[in-house]
Amino acid sequence: MLDFQDALTLPPAAPVVLSAMAESADPPPDMTVSEWAEAFRFLGSESGSRFAGKWENRRVPLMVEVQDVCGVDHPSREVAISGGAQIAKSEAALNALCHMIRTASRSALVILPSQEEFGKWNRVKFNTTVEATPDLHDHVVGLRSRTEDSSTTAYKKLRGDGFVQLTTASSSKGLQGLPVGFIIAEEVTEYEDDVGGRGDPVSQAQARMDAWGDEGKIIYVSTPGVKGSCRITTLVEKGDLRVPYVPCPHEECGDFITLDFAAMDRDETGEHFHCPSCSAAIYETQKLGMIARGVWVPTFRSPDPARPDDDSAENPDNPCPPEIIPADTLARWLSPESHQRLYGAPGGRDTEGRYPSFRCWQAYSGLGSWARIWKRWQDAQSDPTKLRTFYQQTLGLAYEERGDAPDHETLTEKWRAAGRPSGVIPSWACMLTGMADVQGDRVEWGAYAWGPGPRGQRIAGGVIPGDPESPTTWAELGRVVRLTFPGEACVDLGFDRFLVDAGYKSPYVYLFASGYPNVMATKGEPDPHAPELGTPTKVKAKIGGKVMAATELYKLGQYGLKRRVYFGLKQGLIELETGVMQPGAIGFSSEVDQGFFKQITAEFLNPNRKFKNMPVWDKQAHQANEQLDIAVGALAGAVNFGLDRLDWQGWQDLFKARAKADALDAMAPLERLWATPDAAARAEELASAKSRIIQPAPKNPSAKPAKPAWAARLAKINR
Ligand SMILES: [Zn+2]
């Protein structure tokens, strides 16, 4: 198959012509942002971009309009850009900043979400761009040669009086200061709601632009975050919500359509989209031609003035654009800028005074590939954290955190009926982990078996009554930690990892952990961005003023682990229903009762309580949750032992090392979970999972109904 990346690689630009242009570039050029970028902008080799060298609009043609509305020469005061990674949204804002440095005497403020992003933006984006772009050399003072009034990291001095100031969104001091006429709010979704007790960081920054009145300019750029608390989603939906439409490359069709992930597919011919109008397949080799003719269409919903109380009512005089736009009616739906570019005259859809806002995803970018999009989608099937990243980074959509567990009654009924035996490692598993939770009068524990997929099953558990300060309690737990379990296919296995929660009576837990090579002392870490299993710290078991032992303490990133357990519960039920193994599934033996399932489903993600911009896990009132903590710990133990690291070969090796002599065939059906065989069944499975994808913008379905072939396909996807 043609490697389209190769097709994108161009011979190096002619240096003679460019340097001649650079020298003739004073006084300020009368150019739009995209024209300036095409003529002068270079990407430094330190930028890490595969496309270092001359900026070329043709790689990201849809970004031409985005760049131009970001310019200080465009009348809109605000612009919001939301989308996945690799669509050049930050570059568009940076081009607008460079264009401002060259054409207007203003000062600018760039807000980054963290110190790390601050450093990266300074080094990788701004400094390398200025150094690589001769047209900017004389306009940023002392960046290249250190003099007394050199630019610093936080202040870039511009020729004249201006400056470009960099700050983090968490620095109230950085957000205050001298007036600025241009602001870039980078990764705006990651900002805290309140900074330094002075409130919203964006409002604090905007106050610095008051002197510029309507001529100030602020650009919000971000990858989306979590649904319900995503700043960029709110900002984009307040604007005119432009999405890209591209012409179907099939001659007999030619309708303007959107590339929706729900219409993406893969078979032996490769990754493709189905045209919602003619149903024909559209391949990546047709992408560059299609996006070069792409347009932006405002898709905001104009409320019906006759029915002000009905949020879903649409203004009949300004309806949402249809899903399929025939080329001969394109003009009336376009953004003002797309209309101007295509028809050389004002026109297009009435945006009712809304500011330009954009939403785009990777399928439309010349910088990424459809094959990689599909690969990432496949990889995300077993892991809600990867699925969230896929939504945000690839689809450019806010992710809905589904922190709701399946109903405990359903779980009890289904798993009792399934009749899986307890105390035995299932034929598909060859890894064993456990977790113990220390309470005031008892220690509760559970054992889980794991196999490729990855999939897990709880095979045993129990309660050790007794005082956690009493040696007999720990002696009893020591007996548990040394237990072995028979396998249906593997030899008797002991625990590969056994975790003990050190949140309560920690010195005793440390002392116990120090005595067993397979025991890890752990503590829950509430930070939603923490890794599932952090780097351990050294701790000492101090009992009665005396250091008894030393061990390591592991922090468990509970946020992601709990979500994974709940995802596993749901996948497990799908498995029971369909008989098809599901990645991530967690199953149970039939002796598990309703009390157990009440505990494991005791928590939920509360969207009304936030920590670091993410909803917080809350417990149902008066409901014990030990079994959830135990499942979380057992999963973390498996992750530590290699659950996510092992590939198919790795699992086979582990299985061979542990299998009974006559059981080496037992894993065969699991190959279905891995990419190669039975692609049709896998595609079907992925398609049904895709029905969870939320469409990015409201559309007017009545304007032109989908054709029957497509309708049938959609029905299949959404079933
Ligand atoms: Zn078509």
Fold blueprint:
Elements: H1 4-8, H2 15-23, H3 33-40, E1 42-43, E2 53-54, H4 63-70, E3 78-83, H5 89-103, E4 108-112, H6 115-132, E5 140-141, E6 155-158, E7 163-168, H7 172-175, E8 182-186, H8 201-207, E9 217-222, H9 231-238, E10 242-247, E11 256-257, E12 264-267, E13 270-274, E14 281-283, H10 287-292, E15 295-298, H11 336-343, E16 357-360, H12 370-379, H13 384-395, H14 408-418, E17 431-438, E18 442-451, E19 455-465, H15 471-481, E20 484-485, E21 493-494, E22 497-501, H16 506-514, E23 519-525, E24 537-543, E25 546-557, H17 558-578, E26 586-588, H18 594-600, E27 603-611, E28 614-619, H19 626-641, H20 648-658, H21 679-690, H22 708-717
Parallel strand pairs: 3-9, 3-16, 4-7, 4-8, 8-9, 17-22, 19-26, 22-23, 23-25
Antiparallel strand pairs: 1-2, 5-6, 6-7, 10-11, 10-15, 12-13, 13-14, 17-18, 18-19, 20-21, 24-25, 27-28
Helix pairs in contact: 3-5, 4-5, 12-13, 14-18, 17-19, 18-19
Bound molecules: zinc ion.
